[in-house]
Amino acid sequence: MRRGLMGWDQNELPKSALEARLARLKAAMARDGFDAYLLYTNLVRPAAVCWLTGFTPYWIESLLLVPGSGTPMLATALSKRVADWVKTTAWLDEIVNTPKPGTAVGQRLAALGAKRAGVLEFDALPAGLYDDIVAAAPNAELIEASAVFASSRRVIDAAERKLIERADALAFAALAQVDTATATDAGALAGLVEKHARLAAAEEAYIAIAADLDADRRLVPVSGSVPLGRRFAVRASIAYKGAWARRIRTFTRDAAGSAAAARGAAWLDGVARSIAADRPLAAQLMGHGGTLSGAKLESFMAESVIRSYPLEVIASSRAPGGEPPAAGTFLVLTVDMTIDGIPWLGAAPAFAGG
Amino acid sequence: MSREPSIYQDRKRRLVAAMADAGIDMLLVYGNAWQGDYLRYTTDYAILEGQALALVRADGHVTLYLDSPLEIDRVALECPGLEVVHAPSLIAEVDTALDRFRNQRIGAAPARLLPRRLAERAKDLNLGDQTGFLDRLLMRKLDSEIAAMRRAAKLADEGYSVFRQAARVGRADYELIAEIEAFFRANGADHNFQIIGVGGPEVRGMAPPGGKKLKRGDLVTTELTPRVDGYYAQICRTLVVGEPNAAQMKAHALWRQSMEAGIAVVRDGVTAADIARAENDVFRAQGLGEYTTSEYTRVRGHGLGLFVDTKPHILEDVKTRIDEGMTLIVHPNTYHPVVGYMVLGDAVVVTGDGCEVLTATPRELFSVPA
Predict the structure, then answer these.
(1) How far apart (Å, rounded) are the C-alpha atoms in residues A208 and A206?
(2) Residues of A with CB below 8 A from B184's CB?
(3) Using one digit for the tens of pLDDT, what is the confidence trace for A60-82?
(4) Which of A3, A83, B9, B277 is 20 to 30 A from A134, comparing alpha carbons?
(5) Is the ipTM of this complex over 0.95?
């Protein structure tokens, strides 16, 4: 559950930016003949509602109803006493606090006379909410319409880019706290990195560590005492005001490892700056993989924010297909390499086309 | 992830026996990082990113479907006994997998969170709501589960001590939580639920930190809830920045009387309503009954375990029987018209003739230097 700083600062996220996003969604709804649009949110799937309003639930679930005309309504299972808090975090003129958000949304659909309501990720809508919506709005047809949202959300505007860059800066700074000369315990190190991110106003911080890279490259959340090996890697997944970024850094205590890590980091930095728009990501990453001498690209992954997940995989070595990124698409590139025989992990953000 | 495999083995034995008794051939279990208790009970996996669905067969075999590749890396390390499927199209893949189990009695939990596409196949698949079946297992703990609760409660006490040390004039609310999270990661708590309130009569509840800086005279309320080996234990306490005034001390005495009245009632065989009534009667006796209503407070306590706010809710209209082995927090948290929102709560485990209080932090209105 979220327990970092949450709040809406209009200097960071101007109301005009949110209005423009809402207008894009409404235009797409009108184009495809929808009277209304429904978006589900919880702390695992907050990105779509956050993009439209700034709101992320710190726990429990909510539904956002966007009518074809008029302002959105948030129906939330958060208690009435929390409504004022919600308004400090988001642009929401109408909040309905109810143990039955689905019923409240259904009643509004019925009152609007909505016939066709698009739903983001309709298959995944929780059954309890769905049943309540349908019971209260028997004449409204609910229709899978994720593409409508995706077409509106494709553009990363200046406000969102700045928030992402802030999240990334927090991740970068938190990882900079790692001192290979003194770090001996992975649990304490996870706490140190998380603490630094939260002190710098992170909304959320997920820290994962591969404590002994020579033995196992898998990154896992760590708590309690776990010894750190000669080479280890730390992943910081950081949210700031609803925008997420990930970074991975590999740390080593030996000269050969340090040289390999430095080469890997410089390489990834260059790759991140050179990702082109409108070209398949997998081909680009595999192509770049051959440009670092003495290195073998073991696996890669590119994530972006496109629907309700803060980050989801859009291309990877496991599934190299996928659409080429549009200009300005935000990406997190994660790479597993062996450099001069030494394991190296890295992740960094990128914007397609610079 | 903090994890003690022997607890899962205990749970699994109990689950398999209960499924046999109930005639359930398979459970379809949904989980995410918000509502992960049903998944954790049946698979021992604490999902962080993405969503999961598990098929739990009557013989205990588990197939766990995860859509996040980050989770795939982790589950193989942490839960080596599971059959794991990386399912980027999670719902579609489980939908297809369920076709293999036609003509079996399948139970779903928690049914209300099941993806709509799967729930719509209820008749086709003989899929029934078995949320209540798992709720009963979740609520009444085994000895090994209670032992984990004790470990979590000990960390909750220590965490509150860290919180008090961090609370100083000029510090932002989120900085206090940052200190606690570092302590918890270093000491075996892989997660923590925490909300906070800072201020005076204008504060009507607790929420995530909003950036308020502590100042002299503020009440600082928090409930912190570390997770150890999957189990959450909670403590609620209030501190004052500077010396508490007479109104704050008087209010706190009432909160303490109410909490202790509630705890005194807890034993095998009472109902959740009995506990809530005991707490609320103390407020009513002082003419403050209005502040025990939903206008000012959500619940007067709740269950604890693999979820931070599990059943039963302690409310006067909840008739759930309290059984030996249940773990609860009793907290008469609510608004006071003079001093603002105030909290006090202790975690307990129900015994045959009473309860054992798990948290040991003194029940006082703490004060930190202004």
Answers:
(1) 7
(2) 191, 223
(3) 899 999 999 999 999 999 888 88
(4) A83
(5) yes
